[in-house]
Amino acid sequence: MRGFTYLSKVFHSHSSYSKLLVLCSVSTGGLLVYAESNVESGKQVVEQNQPESKKKRVVVLGTGWGGTSFLKDLDISSYDVQVVSPRNYFAFTPLLPSVTCGTVEARSIVEPVRNIIKKRSGEIQFWEAECLKIDPENHTVSCRSGINDNLAGHNDFSLQYDYLVVAVGAQVNTFNTPGVMEHCHFLKEVEDAQRIRRTVIDCFEKSVIPGLSEEERRTNLHFVIVGGGPTGVEFAAELHDYVYEDLVKIYPSVKDFVKITVIQSGDHILNTFDERISSFAEQKFQRDGIEVSTGCRVTSVSDHFINMKVKSTGKHVEVPYGMVVWSTGVGTRPFVKDFMEQVGQEKRRILATDEWLRVKGCSNVYALGDCASVDQRKVMEDISAIFKAADKDDSGTLSVEEFRDVLEDIIIRYPQVDLYLKNKHLLEAKDLFRDSEGNEREEVDVEGFKLALSHVDSQMKSLPATAQVAAQQGTYLARCLNRWDQCKSNPEGPRRFKSSGRHEFLPFEYRHLGQFAPLGGDQAAAELPGDWVSMGHSTQWLWYSVYASKQVSWRTRYLVVGDWVRRYIFGRDSSRI
What is its EC number (predicted)? Predict the structure, then answer.
C-alpha cells in the first residue's frame, strides 16, 4: 500500500500531457497499461516540435504501375513525398483476368501501399483519398476521403506541391453507348474481377433451377465479351478453361448450354499484335468453340439483350446474354479533363505531355501511364532551326560532315528519325542526301534538307496504354528528379536547336520488352524483342516465369505461384464469396 501511495503522489505532483499507471498482477504476472490524456475543451492537445521541412514537396496521385515504380526508385532523402490514392494497395493488373475465374486469388496480386512505404524507411506519407481537382495556379490539389462517413472527422482536405505527379490511370471508355454503364461488367480494378467471378457462378446457379426452359438456360449461360484486345481475349480464354475444366463437372446438366462470344469491331482480334499471333488466336478460339464476331459494333445494351450492327451488311442483330464484359479502351477521368481545360488542352482527348513527361502548359506537373500521352515533337516543325544550327559556316548549304555532327542529337530529340533510317535501311548520314534518282550529294540547301526529312514524321507512333509503359515512365521520372541538381549544372540531354545549350535530361525512351497473350489450355502467344514470335505450351511456361518474376514483392510472388500450383492440383474454387 505504501508503494501505491507513493506512486499516486508522484503522478499527481508532476503535470504532463500523459499520465501512465502501471499495475502489476502478482497472481498472473500480467501487465496492464493505462494512459490518461489531458483533454482541454474537448480537443486533444498535440505538440509539433518538428521543424518545417525545406525539401521540395512531391505529391503523387495514384498507386498504379506508374506511381509505384516512381516511388520505389525516387531518392526520398531529397524530397518530401506525399501520396494520394483511393486504393491503399498496388494491383498487378495483368493478372486480373485470372482473378475473374479463381485461377489466382485477388489478395495474391495486391500489395498494400504502406508495405511499399515501409521499405522506404517510412518517409513517405500516404492518404487514402480521391483527387477532386488540381489547381495549377496555386499549386494545390483538393482531395476527399472515401472512407465511411460515420467515422469522426472531415473528409475534404488539400495539399500544396512543388512537383505534382499525376499517375491516376484511366477509366472505362463506353463511347457513350446506351446501357453499357447500367448492364455491363468492366475489368479495370480488382473489385471488377471479383464481381465478374460472382456473376459467373450466379449464371450457373440460376440455370440449374428447376422449371427453366432450354432457351432461358442458354440465355443465362451466354457470356459476351465486347472487345478483342489483350484483356478481352485473355478473359475469354480464362473463362473457357474455368467452364470446361471445372464448372461443367459440378453443373453437368447445363454443360451443353454454355456459349462464349467475343465481339470485335475490327477485322481481327489482337490487332495490335503480330498477324501470326492474331491468326493463331482466332484458330485456337475456333477449335475451343469460342465464337468470334469481327466487324461488329455494339449499338446498345439492355437488361437482357445486346444490340449490334454488322458492318459488312449494315444489319442490326439482337443477341440475348447472361453476362456482358465491356473491354474496349480507356477514357480520361473527370478531374483530369478539368485540369486539361485549365492548362489549355480542352480540345484534346487525352492529357498531353512533352518528351520529358511534363504536362504541356504546366512546368511543374508530370503525368505517367494511361492518363496521358507523350506528344512527340515533329522534325518538320524545327527543320529550319536544325539546318541553321548544323550549318556551322553559315554557307547556306549543309555538308554531309556537318549533318553527321548533329545527327546523334537529332536522333535523341526526334526518335522517329532513327526509325525512319532503320526502316529504309539507310546506314549512313550521306544516304539521306541522295537525290530522287539515288545519286549521292555532298551538300544540300535548306529546301533539299526539308525534302530529305519530309517523310520522317510518318514513323511517329503513340505509346500503348500498358503497364510496361507506365512502369518505365515512373522509373525514368524518378531518375530525373534524383539527378535534378546534377543535370541542371551539367546537362545530359540533346542539343537545343531553337536556342543555345542543351536539354537538362535525356527524353523518355520506351523500350519494348515484348507482350503476352494467354489463350487458354496452357497455351499462350508472345511478341518478343527482335521481331520474335512464340506460340504454344512452351510460351505459357515462359509467361508463368515472367509474371512471377515481375511481382512487386516476395509475398505476392509466393502467393501467385502457390495459386497456380493449387489450381493444378485441386482445380478452381466455385464458391460464391
Answer: 1.6.5.9
Other beta carbons less than 10 A from residue 504's beta carbon: 17
Q: C-alpha cell of 444?
A: 544540300
Residues 556-561: what's their mean pLDDT?
98
CA dist 445 and 398 (Å) reads 6
Residue 504 half-sphere exposure, CB side, CA atoms within 13 Å? Answer: 13
Residue 26: its pLDDT value, please? Answer: 33
Q: Which of 58, 55, 53 is nearest to 164 (CA)?
A: 58
**Which amino acid appears at position 406 of this protein?**
V
d(CA 473, CA 70): 8
**Rounded to an integer, what distance in angstroms lies between the CA atom of residue 477 and that of residue 507?**
10
- Evaluate whether 157 touches 143 at the Cβ level (below 8 Å): yes
Alpha helix (H) ranges present in 415-526? 415-423, 446-452, 467-482, 484-489
**Model confidence, pTM:** 0.87
Q: If you compute the radius of gyration of the chain from its CA atoms, what whole number of angstroms results?
A: 30
| 51-78 pLDDT tens trace | 455 889 999 999 999 999 999 999 999 8
Looking at residue 535, the DSSP 8-state letter turns out to be E
Q: Which residues contact 50 (CB under 8 A, 6 or more apart)?
A: none
Confidence of residue 31 (pLDDT cuts 50, 70, 90): very low
Closest CA to 222 of 316, 293, 283, 164: 293
CB atoms within 10 A of CB 95: 23
Identity of the residue numbered 196: I
> pLDDT digits over 148-186, tens only?
777 888 899 999 999 999 999 999 999 999 999 999 999
DSSP string spanning 167-236? ----EE--TT-TTHHHH-B--SSHHHHHHHHHHHHHHHHHHTSTT--HHHHHHHTEEEEE--SHHHHHHH
Compute the distance between CA of residue 124 and CA of residue 126 in angstroms, rounded to an integer.
7
Judge contact between 224 and 200, C-beta under 8 A.
Answer: no
User: Are the beta carbons of 53 and 80 closer than 8 angstroms?
Assistant: yes
| C-alpha cell, 264 | 470485335
What is the phi/psi pair of residue 84, to 5°? Answer: -125, 130
CA-based angle 543:549:553, to the nearest 5? 135
